[in-house]
Amino acid sequence: MSIRRVNHAVLSVSDLEASTMFYRDVLGLELVAILPAQGDWKEMRFFRASGESTNHHDVGIIANATLPLPGRGQPSVPGLFHVAFEVGTIEELESMGQRLKEANAFIDCVEQPMHLSVYGRDPDGLSLEVVWRVPNVDWSYEDLWRRPLDFDAVKDRWGGTLTTGSAAGEPA
């Protein structure tokens, strides 16, 4: 028996309303459930990929964060480095980058041998990555690199609407 995939992540946040708006309105996740505060447990909210996920929830948030995160590139305590979300096409990835820019949450766009990435931060500064999976036949395990993402160049290579990853029915 082995672990098959990551099922969900629960994030500690400082402002439940600001984080709800970010994960729902900027990332487009569907708010599917709210667990009211109970005793020492703060209220939790649960989200999933709208229409795509087979999970009860993919991301949960709980307003129990009390310390600010260090700035980018600064030393941090052990913990979560980032959460990655997947889109189906390069056009969707480019659109997500624009949404992050409009929300003043954008960090960078990067091309890597296994996926194309747009990086951002949520209202608490938690790092997130949105990826489009490069077709499996083009993956590399030996020659790993990171370079700036040129959307025009990758759309010339694969087309803007090629569906990959879980959107194409590939296993997680």
Structure description:
The chain is α+β, with helices and mostly antiparallel strands. The protein has two domains: 1-65, 2,3-Dihydroxybiphenyl 1,2-Dioxygenase, domain 1 (Roll); 82-172, 2,3-Dihydroxybiphenyl 1,2-Dioxygenase, domain 1 (Roll), CATH 3.10.180. 19% of the residues lie in helices and 28% in strands. A five-stranded mixed β-sheet has the order 5-8-7-6-9, covered by helices on one side. The protein has a four-stranded mixed β-sheet with strand order 1-4-3-2, covered by helices on one side. The longest helix is centred in the middle third of the chain and has 13 residues, at 90-102.
Task: Give the tags.
2,3-Dihydroxybiphenyl 1,2-Dioxygenase, domain 1, about 170 residues, 3 helices, five-stranded mixed β-sheet, single chain, globular, about 20% helix, alpha+beta
Task: Tell me the series of helices and strands, N- to C-terminal.
Answer: EHEEEEHEEEEH
Helix percentage range: 10-25%
How would the global form be characterised?
globular
Portion in beta strands: 25-35%
Q: How many individual β-strands? A: 9
Radius of gyration: 17 Å
CATH class bucket of the largest domain? Alpha Beta
Q: Could you describe the largest sheet, including whether it forms a barrel?
A: 5 strands, mixed
In total, the number of domains comes to 2
Low-confidence stretches: none
Write the layout of secondary structure elements.
Layout: E1 9-12, H1 16-26, E2 29-35, E3 44-49, E4 59-62, E5 83-87, H2 90-102, E6 106-111, E7 115-121, E8 127-133, E9 147-148, H3 151-158
Parallel strand pairs: 1-4, 5-8
Antiparallel strand pairs: 2-3, 3-4, 6-7, 6-9, 7-8
